[in-house]
Design brief:
Layout (H helix, E strand, L loop, with lengths): L4 H13 L12 E7 L4 H5 L6 H5 L3 E10 L4 H10 L18 H9 L6 E5 L23 H12 L6 E6 L1 H8 L2 H20 L5 E7 L26 E8 L5 E5 L2 E2 H11 L45 E5 H10 L14
Parallel strand pairs: 1-4, 1-5, 2-8, 3-4
Antiparallel strand pairs: 2-6, 5-6, 7-9
Helix pairs in contact: 4-9, 5-9, 6-8, 7-8, 9-10
Length: about 350
């Protein structure tokens, strides 16, 4: 049977839309990743709450309001985001990830030097975010949110900065103190300050805003604390993910349960890192699924399977077609079984 011309055209368009990002002609030239340390789940997802400026920023995709899973501790969350692998790291900042950061691979593949990669962190233990080969741009020692925002603006506005990673810690500190008024105020300050980054992201840029954990819920944590206004059933909470800029204008629907390791890989590959792949999947040990975090994963009522392996029936999230292509490859890592990601 000879294919109809219109059918051939449709198939070609579909194939190009889902082409692996590693083959993209136009990878992101500038990447900004902002990690907000410890926003409480209900406040992070409340569209009328302190994070409202991020929801209202034009051109921004709120990629996931239920399914970006993260560990409950600060440093392991950052390690997963920045290394592309869920791995145990001491929460006191005394360890660096054993696995190399995906950003080091990105820098090698893109030819970015140390002075083109900037690392800003508000708490000394978050040195975990800094590449071993990174040079300038560091901020540490507990500056206030406003000082961090000034440093973020200064670094992202410099022409030679290709990668900027910023880790805000104040919301986590106020949360541990139980000062929810200060917690909300800090989130509002940060959201208002970083919203312009999302709004102004051009087609050559990729801007991602997420969190490293959002633990506060009705069940006591491992220190016996119980957070108010419990919004989730498990203490292994889910975290937000906002995306803007490069290839985020045309939307596609993806059913997925992402982890922070997936987000790290997704962002690095979107920026042009040549990460390994095999038959549409990232092999171990580059990426682990949510099963790597004990007690965490997609719950059964949302289609989750054994060990947190997603099954059918997951709630769809809306992201760009280009990122959908990355998910086809990156979110099928296996921990005792294949991790499937049906694409709509």
């Amino acid at each position: 049977m000879v294919p109809r011309p219109w059918l051939v055209a449709v198939l070609l368009v579909a194939a190009s839309a889902l082409a692996p990002l590693g083959q993209a002609e136009h990878p992101a030239e500038e990447v900004t990743l902002v990690v907000v340390d410890g926003p409480r789940h209900d406040l992070a997802f409340d569209r009328e709450g302190p994070m409202q400026p991020l929801y209202e920023a034009p051109g921004v995709t709120f990629a996931n309001d239920t399914w970006t899973a993260g560990p409950a501790k600060t440093v392991p969350g950052h390690a997963a985001l920045l290394s592309g692998k869920a791995q145990p790291v001491a929460n006191d900042g005394s360890q660096r990830p054993e696995e190399p950061l995906v950003w080091d691979q990105l820098a090698e593949d893109r030819g970015w030097g140390a002075d083109e990669m900037r690392w800003l962190y508000q708490k000394d233990k978050l040195v975990v975010v800094a590449s071993d080969h990174a040079g300038g741009g560091r901020v540490a020692g507990g500056p206030p949110d406003e000082a961090m925002l000034e440093a973020l603006e200064a670094n992202t506005s410099q022409a030679q900065a290709r990668l900027v990673v910023a880790a805000f810690a104040r919301p986590d500190d106020t949360g541990h103190e139980g000062d929810w008024s200060a917690h909300r105020a800090s989130l509002a300050t940060i959201a208002e300050g970083i919203a312009p980054l999302l709004e102004q992201a051009g087609e050559d840029e990729l801007v991602v805003v997420t969190a490293d954990h959002a633990r506060y819920c009705q069940e006591p944590d491992d220190h016996g604390r119980v957070g108010p206004l419990g919004a989730v059933d498990e203490c292994d909470a889910h975290v937000p993910l906002w995306v803007a800029g490069w290839h985020t204008r045309s939307n596609a629907t993806v059913d997925a349960c992402l982890t922070q390791a997936d987000v790290g890989v997704l962002v690095a590959e979107a920026a042009g890192a040549g990460l390994p792949e095999a038959e549409g999947a990232f092999p171990e040990p580059l990426v682990n699924s949510s099963a790597a975090w004990p007690g965490q994963g997609c719950p059964p009522e949302r289609g989750g399977g054994p060990l947190g392996v997603p099954g059918p029936g997951l709630a769809p999230i809306v992201i760009s077609a280009a990122i959908a292509a990355v998910l086809r490859r990156s979110a099928r890592a296996a921990v005792g079984g294949q991790r499937g990601v049906p694409l709509g």
